[in-house]
Amino acid sequence: MERLAQRMSRLGTETAFDCLCRARALETRMEVVHQEIGEPDFATPVHICEAAKRAIDDGWTHYGPSAGLPELQAAVAAYAGGLRRVRFWPEQVVITPGGKPVMAFAIMALVEENDEVVYPNPGFPIYESMIEYMGGRPVPVRLCEERGFRVDAEELAALVNPRTKLIIINSPQNPTGGVLDREDLRLIADTALRHDCWVLADEIYSEMLYEGQFESISQFPELHRRLIILDGFSKTFAMTGWRVGYGIMPVAMAEKLARIQTNTNSCTASFTQRACIEALRGPHEPVENMVAEFRRRRDVIVEGLNRVPGFRCRTPAGAFYAFPNVEGTGIDCRVLADRLLEESGVACLAGTCFGTYGNGFIRFSYANSVANIEKALERIGRLLAG
Ligand code: PLP
Q: pTM for the complete prediction?
């Protein structure tokens, strides 16, 4: 296309959506097990849906404040603070259409031409895409299988320098399921403070945790003046299509992000925000039941993947992805992911969709029933045996 802005050539994408389209097209001639897309297969809890319907009837169908409805900001501050065992104020909260805009807006607000941004690789592909789009320099920090895919804090420290504007971390992590412990977080916070750079902590999987309690870098109060937390409703409450997320940050930064929203999407839909107040204040059992079910599925898929010749899979401590090393098959992970989709009807993503250091791995989302996971395992086994 002609006369597009140069930066458009630097905008990447999230391959999961492309793979979903290919899998849907294939479905006209074969049955496909979907393990590509990262969304809970559970219905949004009924009490949340009811609250949305009531909100529409009550007239919550107009513009609202750019930063979000004050009642939801207050509910988020209390809920997110409780989960992290820290104190947040409602003015620190910006409600956004999904968690993803927090990522984009934070990078837009902070990153200038040639500023360096350190981010996990393999990792969520939108970090790199948005850094490049804004003209920043992406500096990947490698996540290694041997460390349980936790960032090596020393390696990260070695990548940070006076040009570093932002460090992005993600725990529990997509695509590896790795979880950072308190000591990792402390070392990362120390590095950020030493160089006075910002931290974007992507905590969208904060409640998809199978061992221990959730640790957040926000537990180090000295970092709060340089910290943006990203979280939301998509994963925790099975609300991916509702598009509500939030950022928690210093008040002055919250004003800047709200200003970006005024300039882009104006605000997040009002009736979905009302439903989110109910999500945070209403019964929590649906979340607990969903997480318990994910844990059960995790154990099934990890055990099954480790039985596949040439596969080696660590047990992820969080999120809902298994990330086996498939080098032992002797097949390139991109070729294997394609063959699994086209020949076996198992939709999954090559590790390279998450960056160069994802080479040799495949990501399977286990947001699917145990019966489907078992069907996929059987098909994977058959492909590799034949
Ligand atoms: N961050 C990570 C690591 C994710 O995996 C996702 C979604 O897959 C998001 C953010 C975006 O979530 P949302 O759907 O709320 O925009």
A: 0.97
